[in-house]
């Protein structure tokens, strides 16, 4: 049985090699975007938390989506800024894996939350009389906990598969963060099972939510088109 972390202990992230003197400007632009992203999402969370009129399922899921966006940005951007400033950066192999796991968790969370939010709008528009009883606080809490449970299952699958790999180098990744494909290129083990697993995860956690989202909005559009008055259609569609 192979054991992980056998040879590669440190990874060099090359980042952006063709900026040619534009590093300070690019650093400033990325820093501003990161600052606006964090402040904007924190503002959403703060406003929803403080305003009683926004204590509804849609805005509850929106705060979770904002948290996911903060997690994703904070996982990638700070180290990316370090790479831009110093034209490359070294990170421990464990740290690289942790970054990949956090990135994967935030991406999966966003997909699942968008699916739940589309279901929320489906219930609000297609079944308005049952909306309050279906989309209650218990359902919202269970939905978010279920999302995190599914994330843990996916990450455990990846972790146990990658723990069987030997990583023998080279220890250079031509990227600005630790993504799956560059990591697998460092392995001298057979990565077929990991690629198959990744394909399965994409189907379950990305394609399936996309199908649910599309179906939800198809039903929503059909329900709106059945409303006889133009004013009623516009009012319903605005939600």
Properties at a glance:
8 helices; globular; 239 residues; 72% helix; mainly alpha; disordered N terminus; three-stranded mixed beta sheet; 3 strands
Radius of gyration: 22 Å
Low-confidence parts, pLDDT < 50 over ≥5 residues? Answer: 1-6
Roughly how many Å apart are the termini?
55 Å
- Helices, by number, come to 8
**Tally of extended strands?**
3
Helix amount: over 70%
What global shape is seen? globular
Strand content: under 5%
Average pLDDT taken over every residue: 88
Strand order of the largest sheet: 2-1-3
**Structural class designation:** mainly alpha
Task: Write up this protein.
The longest helix is centred in the middle third of the chain and has 34 residues, at 93-126. Helix 1 (23-50) packs antiparallel against helix 2 (57-86), helix 2 runs antiparallel to helix 3 and helix 3 packs antiparallel against helix 5 (137-162). The chain is 72% helix and 4% strand. The protein has helices at 23-50, 57-86, 93-126, 131-134, 137-162, 180-185, 192-225, 230-238; strands spanning 10-13, 89-92, 172-173. Strands 2-1-3 form a three-stranded mixed sheet. It is globular and about 65 Å long. It is mainly alpha-helical. The model is unreliable at 1-6 (pLDDT under 50).
């Amino acid at each position: 049985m192979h054991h992980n972390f056998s040879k590669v202990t440190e990874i060099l992230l090359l980042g952006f090699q063709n900026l040619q003197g534009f590093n300070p400007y690019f650093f400033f632009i990325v820093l501003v975007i990161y600052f606006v992203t964090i402040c904007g999402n924190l503002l959403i969370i703060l406003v929803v938390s403080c305003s009683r009129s926004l204590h509804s399922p849609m805005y509850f899921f929106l705060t979770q989506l904002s948290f996911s966006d903060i997690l994703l940005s904070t996982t990638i951007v700070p180290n990316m800024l370090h790479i831009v400033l110093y034209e490359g950066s070294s990170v421990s192999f464990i740290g690289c894996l942790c970054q990949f796991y956090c990135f994967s968790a935030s991406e999966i969370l966003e997909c699942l939350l968008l699916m739940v939010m589309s279901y929320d709008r489906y219930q609000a528009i297609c079944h308005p009389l049952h909306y309050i009883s279906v989309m209650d606080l218990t359902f919202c809490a269970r939905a978010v906990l279920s999302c995190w449970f599914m994330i843990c299952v996916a990450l455990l699958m990846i972790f146990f598969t990658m723990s069987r790999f030997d990583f023998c180098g080279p220890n250079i990744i031509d990227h600005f963060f630790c993504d799956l494909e560059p990591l697998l290129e460092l392995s001298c083990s057979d990565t077929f099972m990991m690629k198959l697993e990744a394909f399965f995860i994409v189907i379950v956690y990305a394609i399936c939510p996309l199908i649910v989202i599309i179906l939800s909005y198809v039903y929503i559009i059909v329900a709106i088109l059945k409303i006889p008055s133009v004013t009623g259609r516009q009012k319903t569609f605005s939600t």
